[in-house]
Design a protein that fits this description.
alpha/beta; 15 helices; globular; three-stranded mixed β-sheet; Aspartate Aminotransferase, domain 2; seven-stranded mixed β-sheet; Aspartate Aminotransferase, domain 1
């Protein structure tokens, strides 16, 4: 019988057991979680336990019922989202931090790697000199932090401290319809309001038009609004398009507006020499975000924001002094890891309690280096180009938009099924339910397309080839069913008459 007797013994044996369950899961030989949902729902229990069952039995339930009913996202054939399963070193480093440094503070090796890994990211992706970073829980918060810095800076130019006194003037953020919706949410949370996000006209690829931006900035200069930030995309979510960074950055500079680059997904793409010129102008950015839990292979929950002056983030997000924290540390020389809280990351963003994410990023980069990540990025970009080549060459496929990075949008077409959107929606659901290849969809200029995003460390060229093959197979199967239906209906009618 177990009461308040949580197991505090050695982890090694339990980790070995858990590792075996996880290795089995990663073979993806099991059925989807919704194959027999009642089995795991009933086994995992629905009522509050009065008595504990101990760690061994809990691990047994995890291995038999919980882990096999996990997500499809780590599946190398799942290309639906711009998140992926963690690499082994990413998962292991996360576990190390959870045990050895559960909080982002103190003079520890983990805290040292928080800053070092941010500096490594800035160097690897050629961010403007002197930019400093902050980890948060992902792109949503990373964009919020960056735009919080932009709001603080823009209002301070008017003699207003918005973090202290609140917003006193209407404001504008300039983005496009292709920008991630976290931009609107950030505007809402920061008190600007979602309506403050002005959608600037885009070109055929979904990139912000510099001439349209300049017209909008000039128009708002004549009004009584604060022009807070221009948001450029370095890899849009739907298609991977990269805005004309230099032109947009120049327009922002000309008008004295903060220039933010959302590279949550696409910033690592610059490691591919074939697309490196598209990042020209990144040095004009005042803030940049990138998510290590995307192309770097970290567990979900790690985004990074970089700004030219981290002091602006402190003014925007400081929680002010707190006696129980400030008085808990030494006031002179440190000789113990708890003599100082270390770099005050909690005052640069919105999280006080936060894990040590830097050790995870350090481990990921330390394992494969810049060249290893370059190989991964180039491999994935080549896979998207392979899909594009096959779609352009096959008579039953249409390339909806050529890839810039590792996303390719294509669809199955047939004169026998004029409503291509419905046809491809049917193909997509069949793909998901089969579970062999799991892309998502995107609507581009009214066309619903199959949209794989190749980003997982375990995803290989064979997955791209298999996806195209299966789209053709399912499409032809649906066409065959459609041609049979009139004959079956006619036969049934004839039989009724007889």
């Amino acid at each position: 019988m177990f009461h308040d007797q949580a197991d505090c013994g050695p982890l090694a044996g339990h980790m070995h057991t858990l590792a075996q369950h996880l290795d089995r899961f990663l073979r993806f030989e099991h059925a989807d979680a919704m194959h027999e949902p009642e089995r795991w729902r009933s086994a995992l229990g629905g009522t509050l336990p009065e008595q504990g069952i101990g760690i061994e039995r809990v691990l047994g339930e995890m291995g038999e019922f919980l882990i096999p009913a996990g997500s499809q996202i780590p599946n190398p054939a799942c290309t639906a989202f711009i998140t992926t399963g963690a690499t082994s070193i990413g998962a292991l480093a996360t576990l190390a931090g959870a045990v050895a440094a559960p909080q982002r503070l103190g003079l520890t090796a983990f805290q040292h790697l928080e800053e070092l890994s941010l500096d490594w990211i800035a160097e690897m992706f050629e961010l403007p000199a002197g930019m400093k970073g902050l980890y948060s829980s992902g792109g949503s918060v990373a964009n919020l932090v960056a735009l919080g810095g932009a709001r603080q800076w823009a209002m301070e130019q008017r003699g207003i401290d918005p973090a202290r006194d609140g917003m006193r003037l209407p404001a504008r953020i300039y983005a496009t319809a292709a920008s991630h919706h976290t931009i609107q949410r950030a505007a809402a949370v920061l008190g600007l309001g979602r309506a403050a996000v002005v959608l600037v006209d885009s070109d055929a690829m979904g990139r912000m038009r510099p001439d349209a931006l300049r017209r909008q900035l000039r128009a708002d200069a004549a009004g009584h609004v604060v022009r807070v930030a221009v948001v450029a995309n370095a890899g849009t979510t739907s298609t991977g398009a990269i805005d004309l960074l230099r032109e947009l950055g120049r327009a922002a500079r000309e008008h004295g507006v903060w220039f933010h680059v959302d590279g949550a997904y696409g910033l690592p793409g610059m490691l591919d020499a074939r697309v490196r010129p598209l990042y020209d102008g990144l040095e004009l950015a005042d803030s940049v975000v990138v998510d290590p839990h995307k192309w770097l292979g970290a567990p979900v929950g790690i985004g990074a924001t970089f700004v030219r002056d981290r002091g602006i983030l402190h003014r925007a997000f400081t929680q002010e002094a707190s006696d129980y924290l400030e008085g808990a540390c030494a006031t002179d020389g440190a000789c113990h890891s708890m003599d100082s809280l270390g770099i005050p990351y909690s005052d640069f963003g919105v999280e006080l309690s936060a894990p040590c994410r830097g050790a995870v990023v350090w481990a990921l980069i330390r394992e494969i280096g810049r060249e290893g990540l370059r190989e991964r990025v180039c491999r994935h970009n080549s896979m998207a180009r392979l899909v594009a080549e096959r779609a352009a060459a096959h008579p039953q496929l249409e390339l909806v938009q050529a890839p810039t990075l590792s996303i390719c949008c294509f669809r199955f077409v047939s004169e026998a099924w004029p409503d291509s959107n419905t046809l491809n929606q049917r193909i997509h659901r069949a793909l998901v339910h089969r579970g062999r290849n799991i892309p998502s969809t995107a609507v581009i200029d009214g066309k619903l397309a199959i949209r794989p995003c190749f980003i997982g460390a375990r995803t290989e060229e064979r997955h791209a080839r298999a996806l195209v093959d299966e789209v053709i197979e399912i499409g032809n199967g649906l066409l065959e069913e459609r041609t049979k239906l009139p004959a079956v209906h006619a036969l049934a009618t004839l039989s009724g008459r007889i």
